[in-house]
Amino acid sequence: MRDILRSMCERISVLKKAITKAEKEVNQFPEGRLRINTSEHRTRYYHMLQRGDNEGNYIPKKQIMLAGQLAQKDYNSKFLEAAKLELSRLEQLIVQLTKENADLAYDNLSPERKSLITPYIQTDAQYVMAWQAKSYKANTFMAENKIYDTRRGEKVRSKSEAILADMFLELGIPYHYERPLNLRSGKTVYPDFTLLNRRTRKEVYFEHFGLLDDGAYLNGALQKLDGYRESGIFPGKNLIFSYETGEYPLDIKGIREMLKSSFK
Questions:
Q1: CA atoms 72, 74, 75, 77: torsion sign
Q2: Among candidate residues 185, 201, 181, 202, the one with its CA nearest the CA of residue 193
Q3: What CATH class is the domain 124-262?
Q4: What is the domain partition of the chain in residue ranges?
Q5: Got the DSSP string for 175-225?
Q6: How is residue 232 annotated by DSSP?
Q7: DSSP letter at 121?
Q8: For the chain, the helix, strand and coil percentages under 3-state DSSP, each to the nearest 5
Q9: By three-state DSSP, how is residue 126 classified?
Q10: Which residue, 51, 82, 119, 182, has most beta carbons within 10 Å?
C-alpha cells in the first residue's frame, strides 16, 4: 500500500506541474478553433472563427504555425479538464486509502496480538525477514579463500567484497553472499551478492570484478556477463557491477551513491 500511495503522490506532483504549465498558456492562443479535412491523400487545415460556420478559412502552408497553435489550444482545453478531474480523484482516493486499507487491519493491532497472528499481506519488514532467512547452499569452490570478515560475521573472498557487504548493511540493503542462481542455459552460477530492493521486493544481482588487469579473469568476467544477458539479467535493470584494477581502485563513494539512488 505504501508503494501505491507513493506512486499516486508522484503522479499528483506530475499533474500539478503540468496543470500549472497549461494554465499559463491559456491566454496565449489565437481566437477560434481548428478544423482538419483529409481527402484525396491531402490534409487541409481551416480556421473556424464564427459560430455556425462549418467551413472556416483555409490555412496555407506558410501559416502552418497558426494550425499548430489552434491544435494546441484544443488539446490544452481537453488536457486541463481531464487532468483536473484526475487530480481531484487521486487526492480524494489518497485521503480514503490513508484511513481505510487492508493493511491497517494488521497495523492497528497491539504488539501482543501481532505476535500471535500471521498477516495475509506481509509488511515490508516481514518480507525482508523471510527473504533474509531463506537458506541456501553457498559456493564451496575454493572455500579456503574466504578469509575476510564482514560486520555481519561472514567470510568473503576479498577486502573489496567485505567493504561492499558492510556497505549494504550500512545502507539497510538485504543481501545474500554467493547464493546459487540457475541460468537459462542450465548452468549454476554464484553472483557475489544477491540484493533485495525493499520497496519493489525484487532481487538485484551484484558482481564485483576485482582483477580486471588479468586477461584470463577479464575473459571470465565477460563470459559471466554474457550468461546473465542470455538469462534476461541486464545491467541497469537487475544487475549491478563494480570493478577495480591496480590503477583504478574500488570507487567506494561512487558505489555508495549509486546504491542510494537504486535502492531509495
A1: positive
A2: 181
A3: alpha beta
A4: 2-107, 124-262
A5: EEES--EE-TTS-EE--SEEEEETTTTEEEEEEEE--TTSHHHHHHHHHHH
A6: T
A7: S
A8: 50, 20, 35
A9: helix
A10: 119
